[in-house]
User: What shape does this take?
Amino acid sequence: MGKQGVLLVNLGTPDSPSTSDVRTYLDEFLMDGRVIDFPVAARALLVKGIIVPFRGPKSAKLYKEIWSDTTGSPLMHYSIIQKDMLEQRLGDDYHVELAMRYQNPSIESALNKLKDAQVNSIKVIPLFPHYASATTGSVIEKVMELVSKWQTIPNISFINSFHDNEIMIEAFADSGKKHKPETYDHILFSFHGLPKRQLRKADHSKQHCQKVENCCSVMTENNKFCYSAQCFDTARLIAQKLDLPKEKYTVCFQSRLGKDPWAQPYTSVVLEERAKLGDKRILVFCPAFVADCLETVHEIAVEYAEEFEEMGGEHIQLVESLNDNPKWIDALEGLVKANN
Assistant: This one.
């Protein structure tokens, strides 16, 4: 009997922190029409003519600061660990592969390994808790594009989102408890941002997104696929586990690119507001990421920490991501076996 196949897919990372490799990564990433949803000619002009040439050297410098000579980028390091831990947990009846949506290991190479293993089925788990066209949607599209060319196609299923997965919520809360949240002036749940136009596209009713006051604050039938609404829901669930009153925490969004409006409030703006209120110590969760990466260990723990101190704050503490947390592997195991 063949094994059950599992494909874990994270976003990706350059092959090295060299400027050329970072540019190659940025080019593939940003030329995805689900990431920058402009017509291809306009997208190519923006990405190849402006973003990659100018941002490449700056991003390479940042990657060098977080890169390990032995394990590479933290995203790759922890993704490999998660894959190995899950495979060990699942046992001999499963074959687990890891892929990156951009760069290596590629989705195509991982799928081919599963095909060569003659698995009976493939469950694809994009490692993004919250659905977005630019992340989970892009992974699903790529997998379907590649598998559609196979002569024989096994049963394939996808995990659309797991923003409210109870075990994952517990894992984030447990990580936060280690830092004694009660000793901080305020707590931020900082998620990766998305352009507002992409949020609007996820509202099939065309009557809810950015038209209803506090449209993301409560999950409804109209916003069930909304990235922002799912983020707010995750923050609410973690806060409940930590017994945090609403006034103790703020949901915000980081990593904005370009001048178009993105999901708000912006993390940088919230930090400025908290500093003006006299807050000195801030605890930051980043529940959009299941493995630490450039956006957590540098953007939050270095860049925003320095900005906060310049504004009069004293300390920003990043809550580590799920990384090699055994409870996170429990959650992954549950996702694999759900509806099997």
In short: The first helix runs from residue 19 to 30.
